[in-house]
Amino acid sequence: MGEIRNFKSGKSGQSPPQSSPRRLAAIVVGDISGYSRLMEIDEEGTHGRVKRIERGLIEPSIAGHHGRLVKTTGDGFIAIFDSPVEAVRCSIVIQQDMVGRNASLPRHHWIEYRIGVNLGDVIIEADDVYGDGVNIAARLESIADPGQVYISGGIYEQVKYKLVCGYESLGDRKVKNIADPVRVYRVVPDPTAFNRTRKRRENILIFLLSLILLTIASGALWYLLLQPYGKAGDQASAPVFPEMPKRLSSPPPPPPPPAVKQAAPLPQLLPPALPAPPQAAPAPALAPVAKQAASQPQLASPAAPASQPTPAVREPEMKMLRGGSFIMGSNDDVTEKPTHQVAIKPFAISTYPISVREWNECAAAKACAFAATGKDDAPVTNVSWSDARQFVAWLAGATRKAYRLPSEAEWEYAARGGTQTKYWWGDQFQSGMANCKNCTDIAAAEQPVKVGSFRPNPFGLYDMGGGVDQWVEDCWHKNYQGAPSDGSPWVEGDCASHVIRSGSWRNDARYARPTNRDSYDTNVRYPTHGLRVALSP
Fold it and tell me: N or C: at which end does the chain have fewer Cβ atoms within 10 angstroms?
């Protein structure tokens, strides 16, 4: 990435002005692995690709996560964030997006970033940032594997319970020009995959240890078996072996005469026994036994696994809405403007958010990327927009019905329940109507309460405000300028982020409004995000 001190710890070794502000910040340093090799292969093409990535991914991702891009360095970038959570989340988004961009290219043309994130006290100028905090982030980036995010112990302590990802401790590392060792962690965006890998390693280790112990035990047993018995002075064997010669030296008893006499009549007894099968008496007794034996396979066949039909998929309970026109949006927030009339066609929407039980049917079919945890009747969480699309694709394929995510307009139409008030029950918030922060007597928890715990809206739909954030099909737009008026999803190309609705149990009452809207990165999971499905007639 070049001489680090040229852009991280002061230009040409000069100290920055004393008047520059100093603050605590999360510093992200990124660098392209093998940049010189890529330039040798295709200098102009590589330069153009890097610039497009900076404009289309790096800059918007940093801005979208409330960070500031300090500078780009040709083959890398430096950014600062007020929030360590947003710094790590932005780094994950960049790395996951690059996986998609590289998928269609030959391996030797891949552009892969190494990213280091550190929390430290820095000096900030208009076009640069200085201090050991930046140096440590740069050193973490330099030891990171291509496509990976390495974070310091300070960052880890701030984010370990706040992001849906795993962390692999790499121990304390001694880094250049830093006096004390730095605790390093590798970020694992998919913790289930990391846990599976770790479990596999543990199983291999257990197997090897068992094999070693078995080998040692077998060797010890073999050694004992090869030891000579009955040696002089061996008192343990003395009472046994002296008796054996006496028994062996005794002459065997002569065979009894009757045995020889009985051997001759045997051939004479067989012929009379041959006609026994044709006798009438045994035949009736054998017939029922044969019938019963023949019937056994017929009785057992229904229980055979091969004859069982494939279990039917448990479809979500749906409510059919006849459609109509309504005024979408509000003047409560700039993202909800301008209000506009939308015509909705008839469609069905699930009565409840998708539950853990319903999600895990998809996971059991190997169609969804992870198995959800928690109570079966609680709404599923930690779902990215891409995960939600996987679920509806599986459900549509398994049932041969047109399941999909609802459009943003359909979701708001259903959430309003035919009303135009601030909440579906009126303009004033009422306690106990939604699962949101400080909205009920239910204590805060790591997971929302079970689906259907609160009153339904006038359309008979539950949890259309609070509970879990719910993905819709639409790409994120900062307001409704140019939005469709026919209720269709507002999409174009590959969206970096999509719309979420409803608010969650961790948000306050403002988020439970039917008009409230927010966005999140397309491929990133978050603990409060779930989904609800729609069905075209």
Answer: C
Residue 138 and residue 132 in contact, taking contact as beta carbons nearer than 8 Å: no
- 38 sits in which H/E element: helix 35-41
308 pLDDT band (50/70/90 cuts)? very low
Task: Kindly report, residue by residue over 384-438, the tens digit of the pLDDT.
Answer: 999 999 999 999 999 999 999 999 999 999 999 999 999 999 999 998 899 998 8
- The distance from CA 315 to its chain's CA centroid, rounded to whole angstroms, is 22
- Residue closest to 150 by CA, chosen among 123, 112, 188: 188
Strands 529-531 and 469-475: parallel
DSSP SS3 for 393: helix
Per DSSP, 196 falls in state: H
pLDDT in tens, 200-217: 556 677 777 778 888 888
Rounded percentage of the chain residues whose pLDDT exceeds 70: 76
Tokens of residue 11, six digits:
């230009």
| CA 338 – CA 284 distance, rounded (Å) | 92
Q: Which of 30, 290, 269 is nearest to 147 (CA)?
A: 30
423 vs 519: CA distance, rounded Å: 21
CA distance 27 to 86: 11
Cα–Cα distance for residue pair 31/137, rounded to 1 Å: 11
Residue 337, beta-bridge partner list: none
Buried b / exposed e along 310-335 (16+ C-beta atoms within 10 A): eeebeebebbebeeeebebbbeeeeb
**Average predicted confidence (pLDDT) for the chain:** 81
Q: What is the DSSP string of 359-375?
A: HHHHHHTT-SSS---S-
Report the pLDDT averaged over residues 102-107: 87
Rounded to 5 degrees, what angle do the CA atoms 350, 355, 361 make? 105
Q: Which two tokens stand for residue 421?
A: 């008030």
Residues 6+ positions from 178 with CB-CB distance below 8 Å: 132, 135, 136, 139
Residue 41, phi then psi, degrees to nearest 5 = -70, -50
Rounded to whole angstroms, the Cα distance separating 229 from 215 reads 24
Range from 32-36, 147-151, 197-201 carrying the lowest mean pLDDT: 197-201
Distance CA 532, CA 265 (A): 88
Helices 385-399, 356-364: axis angle to 10 degrees equals 70
The CA distance from 92 to 87, in Å, is 9
HEC string of 416-445? Answer: HCCCCCCECCECCCCCCCCECCCCCCCCCC
pLDDT mean over 474-489: 95
145: tokens are 């594997």
The pLDDT, as a whole number, for residue 423 is 95
